[in-house]
Structures are given as structure tokens and as C-alpha cells.
Amino acid sequence: MDEAPFHKLCYDSAITTKHIIDYLNEHGNDSVLAIDAIHGMTPLHMLSMNPYAPSEAIAALHDVDVEVAFHLDNEGKMPLD
Fold first, then answer.
1. Is 14 helix (H, G, I), strand (E, B) or coil?
2. What residues have CB less than 8 Å from 74, skipping those under 6 apart?
3. pLDDT tens per residue across all 81 residues of the chain
4. Is this model's pTM higher than 0.85 or not?
5. For 63, which of 30, 33, 39, 44 is 20 to 30 Å away at the CA?
């Protein structure tokens, strides 16, 4: 996952909404649409699988681009499945 730093950040056990907002401010809102080459996952997939992620962080990604919530990974699952 080193080639996907936002994905890695979204699965960090210390993730906060501030981390998400700061990353998006620095790298742009298009970061939410980045696709992991191995599993076809977006950062929202990673964040929603993270048991430590606050719901506000998930909502922040969803608010940036609502369509990211409907992206299917390689297993045919949406981020909130």
C-alpha cells in the first residue's frame, strides 16, 4: 500500500477527521477517487473497514464526492457493504 498513501492513512488506527481534511486540503478532493491497484478499493472502502475510524471521517469523504459511495471494489462491494 505504499503507492497509495491516502488508503494507508484511512486504515491507520489513529485516524481522525482532521487527518482526512488535512490530507484533502493538501492533495485535493480528487484523492477520494483514487483506486487501489490490487483490490480496486477507494479510500472510503479502507476507511469504512477501519474499526477505529470515526463516523465523521467517513461522512467527510462521502461529502466530498457522493459517487465514491457507489464504487464497487474487485469483489463487487460498495464501501459501506
1. coil
2. 39, 40, 41
3. 557 899 999 999 999 999 999 999 999 999 999 999 889 999 999 999 999 999 999 999 888 888 899 999 999 999 988
4. yes
5. 39
Name residue, grid cell 477517487. Answer: 33
- Taking CA 1 as the corner, what is the angle to CA 63 and CA 5, rounded to the nearest 5 degrees? 45
Nearest CA-CA partner of 46 in 74, 3, 21, 80? 80
Q: Quickly tell me which residue has 500500500 as its cell.
A: 1
73 Rama sector, left if φ>0, alpha if ψ -120 to 50, beta otherwise: beta
Residues 6+ apart with CB under 8 A from 79: 41, 42, 44, 45, 47, 48, 68, 69, 71, 73
- For residue 76, what is the DSSP state? S
